[in-house]
Structures are given as structure tokens and as C-alpha cells.
Amino acid sequence: MSSLLFCFFFFFFFVGINLITVNSSPVKNDQRPLILPLHLSSPDSTVYRQADDHRRHLQQSKRSEKPNAHMRLYDDLLSNGYYTTRLFIGTPPQQFALIVDTGSTVTYVPCSNCQQCGNHQDPRFQPEMSSTYQSLKCNPDCPCDRDRKLCIYDRRYAEMSSSSGVLGEDIVSFGNESELVPQRAVFGCENVETGDLYTQRADGIMGLGRGQISIVDQLVDKGVISNSFSLCYGGMDVGGGAMVLGAITPPPDMVFSHSDPDRSPYYNIELKEIHVAGTPLKLNPKIFDGRHGTVLDSGTTYAYLPRQAFAAFKDAIIKAIPSLKRIHGPDPNYEDICFSGAGRDVIELSKKFPEVDMVFSNGQKILLSPENYLFRHTKVSGAYCLGIFENPDPSTLLGGIVVRNTLVTYDREDGKIGFWKTNCSELSRRLQVPSAPAPSPSSLATRSGYTNVETSPTLAPDVLPSNVLPGAFQIGFITFDMSISMNNSDIRPNFTELAAFIAHELEIHDSQVHLLIVSSKGSNYFIKWGIFPVDSANGISNTTALNIILHLREHNMQFPEKFGSYQLLKWNVEPQIKQQTWWRQHIVAVAFGIVLTVLLTVSIIGVWSFWRKRREEFKSYKPVGVVVPEQELQSLQS
Fold it and tell me: Which GO terms describe its biological process (predicted)?
């Protein structure tokens, strides 16, 4: 079957089929992505004319200080098969979770009038609700619909998924961690999606590849960012990460490889050798120098080597770990190469598995930790499987697993790609800018050839409405509902551990997170959490509450893979119940005590008075016959 598919693809290469994006759809635990998906060119497919790279290079030959768009990444490879970021489109902004894909040249989201779109993380884009949306009219630079009125796009992938729709233009903003002000940009409004694109949780694709309607190319053409961007994927059991649109200052020890844009539409590097445990594999360096070179693609989950290179790599790994037991993979449909006995702690993997070096043609090399070529076995605790596979096509494809916890800079201006090992989850936190979103421009021009739109929209997707956190009351506590889908239905989540992760992500103390309600059905759990103040007398400050709510609203929490996938359903802010004084809290008891005291006092006084009176009467009584002093008679007056 693989040979037939390869022949099919090989045939189409020679009849005018263009190679485009690597698969960006989710790759589940029991699936493998097909390699180098092809875009079948047709009169209806979107093939924009390539931008004049030489002209752009001359315009940017002298780097200038330009703002960057700092954006967080979410999800992880094992649970989702991809990483996403949050993009806001329209006025007012509509939020979308988009797969970051360096192999795609178009950004697209489901449209409200989509005839065939799946149920995704966020509501569909509603053009009619955006005051700044414009559809792109048919013109010589784009394929058009049958009525020759609107520009359209069409993307088809080798695993038989596809996306098609119309092209539109609107204000795009990048969140409150971005220095870059919102910009007008062209994107796809989906009318039909099939395959994995239909079933995936993410809303759509954010195209970062080389192409005129790539989001990077559009921003560069406008002159608002430098011709560069960076990605940093979080590590095993953590996920998340960071993305920067625009240039950054590279770390001193970042290693680079040349990337030739004229050779391939993909981002490629010049891989020369692979070393396992310090020993180079006995391979001809040309094996990594296929038609497109060694392709680096963020939308592919795993890595794929030509047959001979994969065999050598596999044998070297097995030879280096004689103490580990070879076991079957989690899915019998695939002949995964897995090992047990390595333990659960990712940090300890380097003591069990060898280091791998990828050496570039310039002699520089990047170190691959075990997490860069292994994925966790989903059915056997402490077991791991190779995340590098044989490619039936004689080409080398490096997916996201290879660059976990690695800052990758795509320096398109200088034609090179840099690699720097770091903790990408921590990098994401360091990139956070706690300031308000950048103001929207007073006038945002459209792409040349289209109508200019004068607008000053309110673009603050990360600022809550004033009625959410009104200053009229102090916040008592915050509740939010979460659903979790565990990878293994036999394992119950550790809620105490999960609460600690929530506290860490929300940047609060562990004691503030309380489990309120939990229910389950199979491997799915519904959980209600409460966030309470450290001191109940003082409540939660508006600043802290705003930070918590922004994390919740943007699904801005990252959990280990063992908790599976999660979804935040809703959150609610409860006002603080004003604390009463001791006297007000105990006024009834005090009043009762006072009354009782008065009654007792009166009773005691009454009893004492009665007793004293009786005693006096007893003293004044004289028995009969007792001699008494003779009293002087009063004189009688006449």
C-alpha cells in the first residue's frame, strides 16, 4: 500500500502537482501522519504568485527595531498531535485556537455559513458580526469562485483531509502579550472541511510557511515585523510553549543551519550526520539531502528518516540500551519500537537512553535529549517508544518531537534556522507582558489593490468588560468548570496533584484551589473548582482575579500528558460576603445575655430584699410577758 501511494505521489510530481504543507491535523496515539502531504493543483486551488524575495531582502537589508508579537502555545504532541496558539479576528474580536504550521501558507477558520464543518473548540467566525470584515473580490492574483466574484482557496492533504472556502480580510490581533498592534490580514473562511480537519478539536490552521498570504509574509510585507519568527515547544508531560512573530536577539550559543528558500517551499536545513551516544551512524551524508533537503515542519508530530538511515538509527539506539526490555507498542496496528523499565521520571531518561546529535553541514550540531526522539507508551507505565520512523519516501522530515524544549528561530532574512535548547514552558512565562494590549491603529490600510478602510475599532480581546470585575464589590471567590478526557480509562486522575498544577498555572498558592464537585463517565470527568483567597477576610484582589480569569478565558493552562486533554467550560466570579463585626454576628446572643442578666439581677435583688425584710420582721417580734422599757407619755394639750 505504501509503495502504491508513493508511486501515486511520484507520478503527480511530474504532471504539475505542487508540494505544500505537511500534515497539521491532530495525530492520535493510534495514528501516524502521512508524510509530505501534497496539494493537488487545479483551477480552483489557491496558488498566489510568489512575492519578490529579492525586493523584500533589499527593503530589509538594514534591520530596524520593530515590535514583536509574543504569543503563547497550548496543547501537546501526545494528546493532540499539535500545538496551538490564540488568534483574534474581527471587530469585536472573535477568538480561535489555531494549529501553528510552518508547512502551510494560509490561515483559515470555520465560517458561520460552513456547509460541512466539525465541532471545534470555539464558535465559528461570523463575518456579519465584524464591522471590519471584507471578502476579497475576484482578481488576477487569486483563483475565483464559479461566479467570478470572490477569491477562494483549496487545501488537500495526503491523509485525505481537506479545507476549502473563500478568502476574506479583517483585523487580526495577537493577544495582550504582544507588542504588535492589530493588523489587517487575509485569511480563509472555511465552507467545507473533511477528514482530520473535520474531527480535530482545534479550530483551524495558522499558516507560517513561505507564501504571499502566509501570516508571516503579510506582516513582513507591511513592514510591521522583521522577516523572522521563532517557535518553542514545551517538553514531554508539559506541552505548551511560546511563539514570537518578528526578530529576536539570538542567544550566544544558538547553533544555525543554512536554509535555502530557492530549493524548496519548505523550511529546510542541511543535515549531514547523526551521532548516537557519540558515535556517528555509518551513512552517506547525501542520504539526508533529498529533493527538498531535510524538511523542518512544526505541523508534523514525529520525525521520519529514509529507510537506510532509520535502520541505522534504530540499531544504534537498541545497542545503547541493553538493560531495557523490548515490548510491543500501544497499538497492534503499528510495529512501534518500544522499551520498558525506564521509569516515569522524564528527567531520569537521559540515564537510560543515549544522547543523539544532529550535525549540520557547517559543523555545528544540536543535541537531542531522549524526549526529542521518544514518546511515552500509553498502556505500560515507565515504557517509551521511538518517535522517529521510517519514511517510505527518500526524504528526511523532522516534526515537532525533535524540537521539544528547543527555541527554533526561522531567520528568513538571512536564510538560516537557529536552534537553542531551553525550557520552553518557562520561556513562555518570561515572555508574558503584564501590560494592557497595544492600542489599535487609527487607520489600517488593506493590501494593495483593495479598498482602504478607515477604522478605529476596540480591539482588546484580553481585557474583560467593566461589568465582569466591577469596583463596587470585593471578589470573594472564583469558580470554573472543567472537563477532562483521560488517555487511559483505567486510570483515575489524581485531583490533589491536578489542583497543584492548576495553582502553578494560575500563579496562586496551592491552598487556594479547592475541589468542589466531580462526576465521571468512563474516561471523561466533569470537575468544578473553586479559587478562594488566602485570607477570607480580605477576598481576592481585582488584579489577581483578572490574571486568573485571563488564564481561564484563554484556556491558558498546561497540564502533563497523563491528564489527557481538557476543556474549560465556564467560569464565574462571586462577590465577597461582607464580614460582620463580632457584635453584629452575636447581637442576639448578647441581647439574650443582657436580658437574662437583668432578670437574674432583679430576681436576686428581689429575693435578697424579701429575705432582709423577713429578717427585720423577725427581729421586731417580742414574746408575751416580756418586760419592755417604759415609754414617756406625751402630754395632752387642750
Answer: proteolysis
| 185, 153 Cβ separation under 8 angstroms | no
Q: pTM of this prediction?
A: 0.64
Q: DSSP secondary-structure letter at 403?
A: G
Task: Return d(Cα 562, Cα 542) in angstroms, integer.
Answer: 33
Q: Which residue has the cell 518553542?
A: 232
Would strands 475-485 and 416-421 be described as parallel, antiparallel, or unpaired?
unpaired
pLDDT in tens, 269-316: 999 999 999 999 999 999 999 878 899 998 888 999 999 999 999 999
184 three-state secondary structure: strand
3-state secondary structure 219-249: HHHHCCCCCEEEEEECCCCCCCEEEEECCCC
Catalytic site residue from 75, 76, 101, 122: 101
Cα of first residue to Cα of last residue in the chain, in angstroms, is: 155
Query: Pairing state of beta strands 294-296 and 268-269?
Result: antiparallel
Give yes or no: 510 in active site. no
For 462, the grid coordinates are 484580553
The residue annotated as part of the active site, out of 122, 196, 221, 297, is: 297
Residue 92 preceded by cis peptide, ω within 30:
yes
Pairing status of strand 325-327 against strand 338-340: antiparallel
> Measured between alpha carbons, how far is 78 from 385 in angstroms, rounded to an integer?
12
